[in-house]
Amino acid sequence: ADEPFEQLDEGGPERRCVVSGEVRPRADLLRFVADPDGMVHFDPGAILPGRGIWLSPRRDVVNTAVKKRQFARAARRAVEVPGDLADRVEALLARRCLESLGLARRAGQAVAGFDKVCAELRAGRVGLVFAARDAGHDGRDRVRALARRDGTPLPLVDLFDGAELGGVFGRDVVVHVSVAPGRLAGRIAAEAARLAGFRDQMIATAPERAPETT
Hints:
This protein has helices at residues 59-67, 70-75, 85-106, 114-122, 137-146, 162-168, 183-196, and strands spanning 14-16, 23-25, 30-34, 40-42, 53-55, 110-112, 128-131, 148-149, 152-153, 155-157, 176-179, 204-205. By secondary structure, it is of the alpha+beta class.
């Protein structure tokens, strides 16, 4: 009841990118539709009526679809496509990811701050880690080194700056965030994976934990 938006069914059927021809699960792709007036819209939750036009989640793929008129071909009619469509997609994907992180915070499943995140990591209560992309390397490297659970790397999202993360927690800047394992962490990771193709950084897995010294 508290979900901020519709969520793609991760177990749904596969779809083909109209640019690359790549076949992937629906949740891994971007869906677009043309409204009755012919305007193309990004449909992040795959809920709008109409014939879906699916693209791989990358800025260059969206730009190629616009340049080569792939939307009109897929829709089989004349359509109007915003020239800044890739920027609009990025903005909406970023908002969805941060909204889900905000939901995790309100549910008590997300904590911010270096000490708190490290404590959660040591206790094995983390399913996903954020590190601000404009943060200093020392703190980020320490969090990366801790971001392992039973020898398995945890997903680390390096897509947002400190001000963007801070807005979720009511602060000016937040550098480190952890999210508890579970459905919300999975949702955030999925949204971040789609956003990664539109931002300079990518989702990474933490490197192998360095030996501790006494």
